[in-house]
């Protein structure tokens, strides 16, 4: 009877922990992001920690502070690149004459009047199309709404950044902190297995996140280079955004491409909508498609498959399943979560043939 009571208590506690984690999802997200940064920055802290100055190595706390300063400097550098370009684009949107823009669009789509009429959309298709386009244009270029969204997002970002940096600092300063917490709640008979899980998780996830940084760097560099060759303004801004948003599987590249096309469109809208703008937009689209093809067929198979020792088909299916369950957040966390599950399964469920096949390369 006590066996069933213990199992019931274990399940009850697990359910309560899951519900609490769901209720405190923001805090859980901060901890998970800090854990990801811990995997990425630990090699840097270890390198600084082992560095000797006049025969004396740096204390762990000092190495952690230096590492965090380097990371913050990197973020400040990105902001220095983003903010001026973002301000410039905001100025363009503020000064944009939407009536003039509508007139240009109206003249461009006038040739579709007869086609719209054939589909029976309206007795007066041109008027209906004009009203529709004008409504969408005015809503899309609602600068007040854009500023409100940006202000809210900036506030949330600052709070989240502080929380993540605070947690990351203590994870890096005391690298055994996470280990002690996990071992403290682990039954004694499973301690050795849990230690192997943590060792393999640290090794594979560190490789994954470093590989992710390499992918972001490659995407940003290629997009920036391609747009610079085309003479596109703010090529660096577009390239950096495309690289970072690309961490969202499948959806991220579409967002990055749309953002790039939008900036090119708004930068040249004052000169009028003509064939030269259409040609430039087409060239920008081709750059994004080429880079995305390289990412899908070269970068991802080489970086992710090798970093987490999983077959590309596995990764493809897991991302889609995670997206179905958890949306964008699920897609972003799919690969590291799947990697951790495989590591745990290897230690505790090796009696199953499926687990043996999925974990044989770990």
Could you please describe the fold and organization of this structure?
Mean pLDDT is 75; it is low at 121-126. The protein is globular and about 80 Å long. A hairpin with a 2-residue loop joins strand 1 (52-53) and strand 2. It is an all-alpha fold. It has a two-stranded antiparallel ribbon. The protein has helices at 2-23, 25-50, 60-95, 98-109, 113-118, 125-140, 143-173, 177-184, 191-229, 235-245, 251-268, 275-308, 312-348, 353-359, and strands spanning 52-53, 56-57. Helix 2 packs across helix 7 (143-173), helix 4 (98-109) runs antiparallel to helix 6 and helix 11 (251-268) runs antiparallel to helix 12.
Q: Measured on Cα atoms, how large is the radius of gyration?
A: 26 Å
Please indicate the percent range of residues in DSSP E strands (runs of 2 or more).
Answer: under 5%
Q: Note the main sheet.
A: 2 strands, antiparallel
How helical, in percent, are the residues? over 70%
Give the tally of β-strands: 2
Gap from first CA to last CA = 39 Å
Instruction: Quickly count the helices.
Output: 14
What's the overall average pLDDT, rounded?
75
Unreliable segments of 5+ consecutive residues: 121-126
With strands numbered from the N-terminus, the spatial order across the biggest sheet is: 1-2
Structural class: mainly alpha
Morphology: globular
Order of helices and strands: HHEEHHHHHHHHHHHH
């Amino acid at each position: 009877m006590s066996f069933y009571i213990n199992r019931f208590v274990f399940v009850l506690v697990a359910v309560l922990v899951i519900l609490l984690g769901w209720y405190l999802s923001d805090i859980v997200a901060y901890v998970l992001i800090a854990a990801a940064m811990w995997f990425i920055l630990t090699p840097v802290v270890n390198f600084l920690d082992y560095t000797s100055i006049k025969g004396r190595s740096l204390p762990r706390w000092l190495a952690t502070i230096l590492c965090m300063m380097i990371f913050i400097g990197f973020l400040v550098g990105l902001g220095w690149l983003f903010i001026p370009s973002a301000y410039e684009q905001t100025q363009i949107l503020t000064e944009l004459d939407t009536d003039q823009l509508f007139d240009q669009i109206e003249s461009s789509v006038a040739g579709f009047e007869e086609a719209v009429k054939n589909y029976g959309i309206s007795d007066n298709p041109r008027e209906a199309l004009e009203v529709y386009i004008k409504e969408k244009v005015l809503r899309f270029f609602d600068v007040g709404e854009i500023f409100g969204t940006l202000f809210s997002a900036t506030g949330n970002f600052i709070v989240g950044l502080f929380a993540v940096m605070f947690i990351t600092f203590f994870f890096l300063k005391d690298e055994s902190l996470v280990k002690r917490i996990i071992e403290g709640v682990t039954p004694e008979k499973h301690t050795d297995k849990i230690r192997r899980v943590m060792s393999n998780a640290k090794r594979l996830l560190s490789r994954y996140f470093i590989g992710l940084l390499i992918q972001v760097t490659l995407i940003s560099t290629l997009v920036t280079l391609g747009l610079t060759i085309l003479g596109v303004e703010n090529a660096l801004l577009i390239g950096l955004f495309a690289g970072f948003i690309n961490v969202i599987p499948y959806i991220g590249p579409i967002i990055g491409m749309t953002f790039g096309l939008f900036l090119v469109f708004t930068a040249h809208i004052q000169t009028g909508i003509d064939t030269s703008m259409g040609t430039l937009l087409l060239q920008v689209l081709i750059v994004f498609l080429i880079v995305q093809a390289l990412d899908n067929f070269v970068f991802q198979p080489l970086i992710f498959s090798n970093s987490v020792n999983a077959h590309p088909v596995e990764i493809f299916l897991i991302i889609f399943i995670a997206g179905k369950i958890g949306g964008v957040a699920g897609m972003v966390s799919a690969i590291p979560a799947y990697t951790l599950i495989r590591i745990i399964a290897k230690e505790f469920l090796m009696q199953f043939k499926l687990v043996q096949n999925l974990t044989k390369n770990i």
